[in-house]
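Problem statement: downstream parser choked on a complex file, so we are re-checking the raw output for the magnesium ion run. The parser issue turned out to be on our end (a line-ending mismatch), but while we're here, posting the original submission so the record is complete.
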Amino acid sequence: MTRILIVRYGEVALKGMNKPYFERVLEGRVKKSLGGLAGADGLKVERRGGLIVISGAGEVLPVAESELIRRVSRVFGVASVSPAVRLESRGLSDISAAAVAYMRDVLEGDGGNSHVKTGGGPVSFKIYAKRSDKSYPVTSPELAAKVGEAVLDAFGPAVKVDVKKPDVPLTVHLRVGEVFIYDEKHEGFGGLPLGTNGKGMVLLSGGIDSPVAAWLMAKRGMRVEAVHYHSYPYTSGRAREKVEELAAILAGYCGAFRMHVVNLLPAQELIAQHCPEEFMTVLVRRFMMRVAELIARPAECTMLVTGESLGQVASQTAESIFVTDAAAALPVMRPLIALDKTDIMDLAREIGTYEKSIEPYEDCCTVFLPKHPATRPKLKDVVAAEARIPDRDELIKSLVESKEMLTIQP
Ligand code: ATP
Ligand code: MG
């Protein structure tokens, strides 16, 4: 009997012809997620019968299971993770004995398995029998009944059966050549393995929304790069550090990535000087799009990604988004477009960016903020206003040329 970690994949399992490719990438991502972990050299990660199985050389895993679970459940494409025991003998009495031993661990809190909280009295359990090897001569109900009986015999009044809401939902998974027994399931985020869906350039501010947008795209398998705009010296060095810290949290999910940092102040000053105040915001956003696109193309990003949500602020009305969108030829992904702010905040909390995002530092958008931004700008009016800015193409080129590039590490 050896302890293992079972890794299930969600949508990857639904893939048709391309499934082996997705599985291979996912396996690679799972391996990578264990990098730098003391003892990880002794781990074997392999694809086996529709699952990824992590095992060690001996009976126990050479790395703390809680840390393995934490890391692997964050890998995009992973639906859930279960610490389990594996036995090679599929005889009924061996399975029963293993289930009893597993239950003993649960009850006595051995083997790091003291996760069951009961209010005293007998611990309830239910045996879930699962048979992916249909040639096994015992049916699932028979198997469950046999194993349940063995557990009741072994523990007497310390346990009881509860088929509705058991404290210990003990699963016996019968597979070709092996049996897995487990009772815990840690949910992952699902999605698709990183690297299976191209690369996008995220417009990353220090706010709540854009990190969530980046995360959602990465969850669909898209690698990301980021561009961040500041208005130094109106915005501080500390504001910029905050964005780097935020980016580092994202890198915890999608690995190291490049971040391009651009000072947008020259553009903002010219817009303020030449254009009607009410168009300030939408014009700045058009410059952001253009600069992002120029950085995106050589970086082989085929999409831009923003954290906009319909109607959230003046620059995110349908009309403003239309005018902003017209500035760039690359498709602009807005994964938050239909989400409420409260939902976005919940997601930010879940992925761990929220606390950093709400640190109060100024953003470049707050510089030259118009008193009454146009909420329904017309494209032709905005384009006419923009035309008053001299040498726009040169300006955009010089903004791109003056950018800095950082590599963000988790
Ligand atoms: P966020 O919470 O992401 O800052 P927001 O609600 O503040 O969004 P806006 O300020 O209108 O909304 O920005 C909309 C989107 O434009 C952001 O989600 C982000 O993708 C991009 N953006 C805004 N400011 C910056 C910036 N300083 N650098 C890079 N991108 C930015
Ligand atoms: Mg913002």
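For whoever reads this later: The CA atoms of residues 33 and 222 lie 17 Å apart.
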